[in-house]
Amino acid sequence: ACMKKGLLLILIVLLVTGCSKLSSDNMDTTVNGIVTSKIKTNRVSNSYKYYLPLGVTNLMDYEFNGELQYKNNYLYMYVDIISYNYKNNLNFDQKGEYNYYFKSLNNKGFIGVNKLEDGRYYGTVVYNYAKIEFYSDKEDLYDTLAVSLIILSSIEYNDAAISNLINVSGSKDVLYEIDKPKDTESKFFQYLEEYVSDEDVYEKLPDE
């Protein structure tokens, strides 16, 4: 366990300093190392806590959503406490939806990447009842995927707080659906319109 943690910390340092670049060739090994490591948390949010790696900045927390930044990429995190609480069966058979890269995470999530017509990449990492989505150029794509998985893998849920929140709301409806949207663009901009001011949107969106 200590060796795995040490290797993970080395990976994080290499990613932050730019001394190492991940690719599809070594991504599988990296992913397996992350999901089998116990990662100590260092940040508390609403009904859960997680590890925020060096080089990643938390820009905003809003209930069960968050906006992070890694290098020049903005990461949008969604945490599905309803599915976690009721242990809902989630649909991870989405390989056909991604045209560039896909990896199943032992039926507990997946990593998917679409290459867009403008040359950018749209990455989705789903794991541990949470999801991170982002746009990236090719150079930082796999590093950003690894950092996203580190964050999601580290999430520890507060069962008592989640139960209390659900009892107060009196609903078993899935309020945070990590399988949606089918149209990645629509959820991305819907999220920005709801939680980010117009001024910030134009500053942070990648060039169209």
What does the largest sheet look like? 7 strands, antiparallel
Strand content range: 25-35%
* Number of DSSP strand runs: 10
The largest beta-sheet arranges its strands as 3-4-5-9-8-7-6
Number of helices: 7
The level of helicity is 25-40%
Succession of helices and strands: HHEEEEEHEEEEHEHHH
> Spans of 5+ residues with little confidence (pLDDT < 50)?
173-208
Q: What's the overall average pLDDT, rounded?
A: 75
Task: For this entry, give a set of tags.
208 residues; alpha+beta; disordered C terminus
Written overview of the protein:
With 208 residues, the protein is α+β, with helices and mostly antiparallel strands. Helix content is 38%, strand content 25%. The chain has seven helices and ten strands. The strands form two sheets. A seven-stranded antiparallel β-sheet has the order 3-4-5-9-8-7-6, sandwiched between helices. A three-stranded antiparallel β-sheet has the order 1-2-10. A hairpin with a 2-residue loop joins strand 3 (56-62) and strand 4 (65-70). The model is unreliable at 173-208 (pLDDT under 50).
